[in-house]
């Protein structure tokens, strides 16, 4: 447990990984959605890269810019993110709030709720097997962070 926490045992690393699972790949978008300072984010990205969780890939030569992608090791962390999400959705929200993200099993088209097994067909699912839809509230929160960042 201690060695695992050395890699991902802080809020910022977990939020960076959440954004990568949600499809963000560039520094600015990850910064916007995590609300990390540029220095904090750069430090976490470097640490996650050094630990083999992510890789940098250039997307622009002039100026040199990189995007970030999960490695096999990084993708293997998804069950932990899923467990944190399920726990948070169950225990950290008001009953009137809907799920922040709904996941549909691509193979059968059914919502999997907070489970990691499709309740319709009984197949264990991973992130790559799911299509995500943001709740309107969560989509608005993300859009609000993007708009606030652009106003700075």
From TrEMBL:
Keyword Nucleotide-binding found: no
Cited InterPro entries: HTH_HxlR, WH-like_DNA-bd_sf, WH_DNA-bd_sf
Presence of keyword Cell membrane: no
Superkingdom classification of source: Bacteria
Protein keywords: DNA-binding, Transcription, Transcription regulation
Residue stretches making up the HTH hxlR-type domain: 1-96
Protein name: Winged helix-turn-helix transcriptional regulator
Source organism per UniProt: Paraburkholderia sabiae
